[in-house]
Structures are given as C-alpha cells and as structure tokens.
Amino acid sequence: MAIGKSVKRVDAVAKVTGRARYTDDFYMPGTLVAKYLRSTIAHGRVKKIDTRKAEQLPGVEAVFTYEDVPETKFATAGHPYSLDPAHKDVEDRRLLTQHVRYWGDEIAIVVADNKLVLQEALKHIKIEYETYEPLVSPQASLAKNARQIHAGSNNVIGESGYKVGGRIEEAITNADIALQNRYRTQMCQHCHIENHIAYAYMDDLEHIVVVSSTQIPHIARRIVGEALGLPWGRIRIVKPYIGGGFGAKQDVILEPMVAFLTLKLDGRPIKIDLSREECMIGTRTRHPFDVKMRAAVNKDGVLVALEMDAVANTGAYASHGHSVAGAAGAKTRLLYPRAAMHYHARTVYTNTPAAGAMRAYGAPQVIFAVECMIEEAARKIGMDPVAFRMKNVARQGDADPLSGERFESCGLIECLQQGKDLIRWDEKRAARPKKQTGPLRRGLGVACFSYASGTYPACLEIAGARIILNQDASLHIQVGATEIGQGLDTIVAQMAAETVGVPFADVHVVSTQDTDVAPFDTGAYASRQAYVASNAVFRAARELKAKILEHAGRVTGILGGELDILNGAIVDRKDLSRKVISLKEVALDAYYDKQRGGQLTADVSHKTCTNAPTFGCTFVEIEVDIPLCKVDIKEIYNVHDSGVILHPVMAKGQVHGGVAMGIAAGLYEEMKIDAETGKIYNNNFLDYKIPTAVDVPDIGCEFVETYEPSSGYGNKALGEPPIISPPPAIRNAIYDATGIAINELPMTPHTLFKYFKEAGLF
Amino acid sequence: MFNFKSYAKAGSIQEAIQLLEQNPEAHLIAGGTDMLVKLHKGKAQFDHLIDIHDIAELNFITKNNDGDIVIGPLSCFAHVAESALIRKHIPVLSEAILTIGGPQVRNMATIGGNLCNGVPSADSATPLVALNAVVTIEGEDGPRQMPLESFFVGPSRVALKQHEILTAITVTHDNYADYYGHFHKYAMRGAMDISTIGCSAVCKIEDGTLQDLRLAFGVAAPVPIRCKETEAKVRGRKITSELLTDIAKAVTADVRPRTSWRAAKEFRLQIITTLARRVVEQAILNAGGTIQ
C-alpha cells in the first residue's frame, strides 16, 4: 500500500545529484539567443525606431520590431479554450508592441550568436517616444477622461459578482452591529527559482518544437497556434523538469515568440532566457486588490452578512483577465456559508506589469479583507476571535450557498480546535496582562480560509492517464498533469501502485510532457492535479488490473475474478498469501505468447464534474518591537483539511513553503513602483525582500484528515491553500498586541511606522 | 557573461600600482561581490579590470609591537570575523561583519573592497569609524595615512587617487584597549540585505560614568559618520537612563538621513534615535556597566 506513506520522491535522486535536466540543460549546436528591447517609459507610443546600427553588428542575426510581427492579438492565460466567445480570454497582446503600456514593455527583439552581442545590439537601437501620462493606480486609470490603455476597454476588463443569503441592506440595518472598512493588498512576485526560459526549433518545414519551462504544455500548444495563426497540430510543446512556477508559468510568455523566431529564421534553434530583472517586470505578478467591506453581526456572535466590493489591478495586459477576481470571490464564499454574502469585483488595466495567476489565485487578497473584517466583528462584540469563527465557519453538511452543492467533507472546526490547542491560545491569553505598554508587545492571531480543488464548473476539467505493463512487470505511466516541483509524479506513482497492486518502486512515471505523445490535461494550476488526476489514474489502474487478471486467468486457467494482485504477484483472491503466478510471467506471456499475446495497457481520459472545497487556518504568536517597527514571529501553525493526505512529508513541504510565502506576503514582499512615472524600483532580489532562512521561523503543521468521496483516493487540494491565511493571522496578532488594525499589505516596518506614528505610539 | 574589455592580474602592490598607472580607466577588483553586480548591470565605466585578489602581502591580520591591530584589506570577511585577534580585541567589528550578505558573500568579499566601494551602507565601516581606524594608502608617491573617517568623501567616493591602493587598516592600541562596543544592523530582513541604518557604539566606562563614547552611523548621511556633537555632550556623564534618552535626542543633530525610495527620512530618524539608545546601552552593558 503506497497511499499515505512518505515514499521517496521519484525525482529525488535526479534532482539532488543535479542530473535532472531543465530547459537550459539541453544543448543544441547553433542555438541563437534572443533578447527583448524593453521600453523605458510606462505609457506612450513609439514614434520612430531605428534598428539599422544594431542589425549591422557582427553576430546579430536579425532584429524584429512591432512592424514585423503578426497583427493577430492573442490571449496568454493558461485557461482551457472557451467555445463560448463571451467567455474567451481577453485577446489584447501582439508579439511586440508599438503602444507602450508598462515600464519594460516589449517593442523589439534582437537575435544573435551570444548574449554579449545581444546586450551591445540593444544599446544601438534608437527609439523616439510620444509619451502619455502613466496611469499607475486603478484610481488614475478609472478617472474620467483617462486615456484608454487598450482601446475600447474603458480600462475595465471585467466585472462580476454574486449575491447569496438574502438582502444585504436589510441584514445590515437589522443586525446589532454594522461595520465597514477598506483593505488593500500589494503586488507580489512568484520568485520561482528557474526564470522563464524557452527555445524553439524545426525539424521539418511544418512543425515547430518548443521546449519550455511551463506549467501548461497543452494550453501553450494551442496559444502558440493562435498567436501565429498556425494549425495547433503543427506545434509541439515539450516540458522537461521545471524549477517552480507558482502560477507565473500558467501563462504563455515566451513560447509564441521563440516559435515565431524559429519560423522566421529557417527553423534554427532560438532561445530566450529571461534574466531575473526581466522576469520581475516582463512576466506576471499577483494582482493588487482594494476591497471595500461591510459586515453585520449580532451580539450573540452570529455573523449575519458580509459585503465585498473589490477592485483588482491587472496591470498593462489582461493575462488571466477578470478570472482571478471572479475565482477569488467564488472560492471564499464557502468559508462563512450561512451568512448573507454579496461579492462584486472589477478588474482594471493600469500602466504596471501584468498580473496573472499566482498561488491561490486571488483568494489571499480577498481572504485578507474577510479575515480582517471578521476580527473586527469579533472584537466589536467582545467575543474570542476563535470562538466567533467556530460559530460561523463552514461545517460538515453546509453547502455552497450559490450552487447548493453540499460539502462532502469539511473539517474546519476541527482545524480551528487543533490550532488553538497547538498554540495554547486560552492559556496564553489568560496569562497576559490586559494592557501592554512596553516597547515589546506580544499578540496572538488567527485566520481561516476556504478554497477549491480545481476550476469546475468555471472550466472543463479533463485529466488523462495511460499505463503500460512492461515485460519485466514494471509499469510505465504517463499523465497529462505536470510535475512542477510539487510532487505530482510521486503521487501518481503511489496511486497506480496502490490500485494495480505493484510495489511503488516498480512504477515509473514519464515526467516530461510532450504534447505529441502525452495524454491531454490542461496542466498544473488551481491545486487541481492530484484531485482531477486521481480519478483518471484510478480508472486507468483499475482497467489495467482487470486486464492483467484476465490474462493471468488465461495463463493459469483460473478465472480472473478469483485472482488479485498483491505486491507484484498474482494471488488467490480468497487467500491473499497464496501466490498463483508472478506478474512477470504474466507480462512476458502477454508480450510474447503467440496465441494469447497482446500488450496490456490502459488509457483513460476522465472528466471531473465536482470540486471539493478545502479548508484550514493559521494560528500565530508574534512579538512587536514598537520603536523599531518590527514583527517577530514566535510560533506559527497551519492546520489543513485537505482530505486524505497522500504523502505526509510532501504535504508538510507544501505547507512549509506556502506558509513561508504567506509570511513573505504579510511582512516582506512588495513590488515598488513610482507613482508618477511607473518606473519599477526593485526588480531584483536585493531590493525585493524575500525573507531568508533566518527570517522564517519553525513552522508547525497538522492535518485534519477527512475523506473526500469525489476524489479517487479521498484527497483534496493542498498546493495553493497554505499561502492564504498567514497574512491576516499575522495582522490580527499585531492588532492583538498593539490595538492597531493594519489594513494593508505588506506590513513592513515602513507600513507599521506609518500606523504607529498615526496612533501616537512613539 | 560580462562584457568587460580588459583584465589584468596583479601579483604585488607595486604591480597593481603600475597597472593602474598604465590604464587610467581601470578599476580594481578584489572579492568581486560589488563589482560583479556592477558588471551584471553592464556599466561601461567598469570595462577595464585589475584583479588584486591574490596579492598575498595584502591578506593578513596582525597585532604589531605597539599593540595596534592591523588588517590587510584583502582579508575576506569570513577571516576577519573569525580571527581570534579581532574577536578578542575588537569584537564589534566581528559582530558587524557577520551581518553582511550570507556565508558565500563573506567568503569572497574583502574588507578593503567594502571600504573602497565607499557606500554609506558599508557595514564594516561604522565599527571601524567608531574605533578611529586609520587607513594606509600606497601609490606612485609612496605610502600615506589618514583617518578612515576622512577617507569617505562622498557617496561611492573615497580619497584614493587613480594610481593608489589601500594597503592597511589600523586600529591603534589606545583606541581599543578598555573600550567595549556593540553593533546593530537595521535592515528589512535578517541576511542578504543592505542596511537601512547601521549603528556602532564604542565606549569606555569608569565608576558609573561614561568616560568616552564614539557613536557611528551608516546610511544616516552620504558617508558613514560619527556623532561628534553627541559624543562631546555626553562624555563624563553618569550612566543613567536619562543619559540614554539624551543621546537618542542629541543624535538627530549629528545625522543627515534622506528620503529615498528605499526609506523615508522620517522613518530613518525613528530607527536612528531608537538604535542610538539601544546600541549605546548594550555597549555599556558589554563594558560591565549598569544603567542607573
């Protein structure tokens, strides 16, 4: 039995020994390199561009500008294609642009023998701009008469919402207490170790091969086809090992350009390898949100209503468009399902780097606002914040108030109870003086979240799995789902081993996705893969097992139904300890017996039409140094209901990484952009402050294991959720320590200084 | 890939000086932890490099017959921080150096490079300025000495002529014997960061009075600075909590922080005044004093 065990990751040795090959590790002789010419203004238009001097430099193969690329506009979001034109992703990009929309926008591209020539050539391109006023904030881009960043958009790319649980005005009027506030979150970066990189070449006159560090090979294939106006079957995307993505690679960034370049340059291999500095301005970021909230609560502790009005800033290009704000509202609806809830969101363009998908897809932004407001409500009625949450959060038996779908598994109250015990909430609160006055003050904070296990019903959820029984009784399995560091390959091997009945070590997962041969799956995002792939793998494994037993029956003369597979051997179903024949003998027979022979394989595509809600919470104790405006985390715990935990060590790894990223979003990280010019100050790792190993404390993590029946193995989403609740929990702890409600992220010393000064703490 | 145009390697001080004379555009590179960042950014003024990293005569840490501590500028941070001499006699320098970068950076970066880079955030500068360190410079006209404090002439500017090279950093015996110190780096994270404010205090106490105080700040002005007015005001005073409050108040007249996109002046002042109090207090405690 492999499920639930911390087996060795299938890629552990390859990665630890440095043998795993990433995109940049594949060398093709004669590979050319390319680099973008990026704008040095945030908003304007190129009046004139002169590339002649650059083209004449020795080593330069070609220079292309916006005049040379297809007129076609395309969308880059890593979403399944939409058959409904009304739901298609916003097509607002060309390969290169004359209209500059953010500081670093891509105007031209140089192709050369090596990187040094590229750098030199870029210096020789002359540009004249007509400059427009940079619209750096949503306030500026939504102002009357603001210039349209994309013609016809009015700088709004989408608007949506929902209303559940009755009339909000009535609820607010009738409730004992009404509250309102405004919460803001910042622009963050994914900071995956491997920067965006891709190369392309052609082996014939028709087909373009693109090797890319992507989360979404099958989607990338379609978008490259769309961008270049080529039939999708002529594009082949290969995804080798990848060094992280966190959503930044759930977007098609370099693939259409390298495909375009190889097409233009006789199929020669051409690579674009973004620098960290480019990656931080020219790929994707997390949408900053500005959320106005109202809440109504009764003195008995019942949360009556929550109203959220969000503005999401997508920057210069739509990328995932309004989907992030839409999904954020949908996923957080499940947290307080018995309250009236109204959600409205608009997504707007500004002259800043484009935002896209990032771990937990808008939920951290909306949950920050919700959990700040919930804290306010608990304090207002004098109720313990944990008790208030326990009274109002989702319970087993509740349903999504919009769809009416019942939660088949929900352990949130148990999570809160465990977290409370772990941090010794009651004991510490009782022991603390009522009012703290010194420079160092302690505080306790809590926040919870809800999330989902995929994108259904917004998108179609297809997962493919193909398993082959090899001659030596080992299994080869291919899935369309992509390993991006999260451990998917290992989980898939566990699932196949579990269901077929072979040792885990006998299952080999083909890690590379190659769209010419890999089964279809839309890729790694929405914490969906272990959930949606589970049913595909389960069905394929079950089918293969049945075929093996049937064949074993033919070999042994015992009916297949009387046999089973245990640990790689065919055994008597009624007496599992009685071995009938080895699996290897059956496999060899299937491959080579002239009469009975026939390869044993299973190939399944499974469509998931459920979406299991997932829950959890953060508990944190902090100490605030008031004069130095610093927060020191003393203890932090995340407790998750992610259904059955398939691999405890990897699950903990997900939580540790997510909490660290949550701490980063709460206390450290922010893209700094000049409010006047749109210039980006800190697109490097010195000035963009990722917390280091000495800044991230020990992280405690527990799981409340429920069983989710809609999943092949009882599991639910875990990839993204750990990042969601740490920032509001830390914020609530600062509130507890100082009495000061910080309503914006990140809570860096600069932010705390502003609030502490205003409150007269110095 | 770096786009520099020429590279030469010097084996001795004399050779380095000659190479500098031969190529007036050349820059010295030692550990490279600052230079490689500049080269990475493609700055053309660093197109010509003279590598002094392996000049053995500049890599030492000794105590001379007068009891002065002399540090060769090519000593890497890791060696300075771990040196038994430094830890015994001027541990405040060790403390400061251990806040720089991370272990890999400290293995490469040299103390001389940090000082010659001339930035106000150089973390090895404030303890040395507080210790009244003296630098020795050699050029075609022979060696000369000056206080480290006057070596810093402006942001990224030091008192080295084109053909000159820093050859020693000296802390004389009278400047460290019976002195105790403390350092605090205030930054946005605990490692791999640039100081928002750096603060070093060195003091001598006797019978509950502050005999001498030397207080230095980084990033509080265009160069690492000493708080001379504050020092003069508090010399000889009884060690009390009011003294610390007075120091915190007085330093605002000595410093000249500015607003940049990294931090606002007002915020830097809040940190400066807080650190003045806390760092001096810890230095006094390290000297065996108590706050009345």
Please give the alpha-carbon distance between the first and last residues of chain B.
59 Å
Percent of residues in helices of chain A comes to 25-40%
Number of β-strand runs of chain A: 27
CATH superfamily of the largest domain in chain A, by name, is Aldehyde oxidase/xanthine dehydrogenase, molybdopterin binding domain
Strand order of the largest sheet of chain B: 4-5-10-6-7
How far do the termini of chain A sit from each other? 61 Å
Radius of gyration of chain B: 19 Å
Quaternary: heterodimer
Order of helices and strands of chain B: EHEHEEEHHHHHHEEHEEEHEEEEHHH
Give descriptors for this structure.
heterodimer; A: 762 residues; alpha+beta; Aldehyde Oxidoreductase, domain 3; Aldehyde Oxidoreductase, domain 4; 3 domains; 8-stranded mixed β-sheet; 5-stranded mixed β-sheet; 27 strands; 24% strand; globular; B: 292 residues; Uridine Diphospho-n-acetylenolpyruvylglucosamine Reductase, domain 3; Enolase-like, domain 1; 2 domains; 5-stranded antiparallel β-sheet; 4-stranded antiparallel β-sheet; 13 helices
Explain this structure:
- The complex is a heterodimer of chains A (762) and B (292).
- By secondary structure, chain A is of the alpha+beta class.
- In chain A, 28% of the residues lie in helices and 24% in strands.
- In chain A, strands 3-5-1-12-9-10-11-20 form an 8-stranded mixed sheet, with helices on both faces. A 5-stranded mixed sheet of chain A has the order 7-15-14-13-8, with helices on both faces.
- The mean pLDDT of chain A is 97.
- Chain B contains 13 helices and 14 strands.
- Chain B has helices at 13-22, 35-40, 77-82, 84-89, 91-97, 103-108, 111-117, 125-130, 148-151, 173-176, 228-234, 241-254, 265-286; strands at residues 6-9, 27-29, 48-51, 61-63, 69-71, 134-139, 142-147, 152-154, 157-158, 165-171, 180-186, 197-206, 209-218, 225-226.
- In chain B, the strands form 4 sheets. A 5-stranded antiparallel sheet of chain B has the order 4-5-10-6-7. In chain B, strands 11-12-13-14 form a 4-stranded antiparallel sheet.
- In chain B, helix 11 packs antiparallel against helix 12 (241-254) and helix 12 packs across helix 13.
- Classes of the chains: A alpha+beta (762), B alpha+beta (292).
- At the A-B interface, helix 3 and helix 19 of A face helix 13 of B.
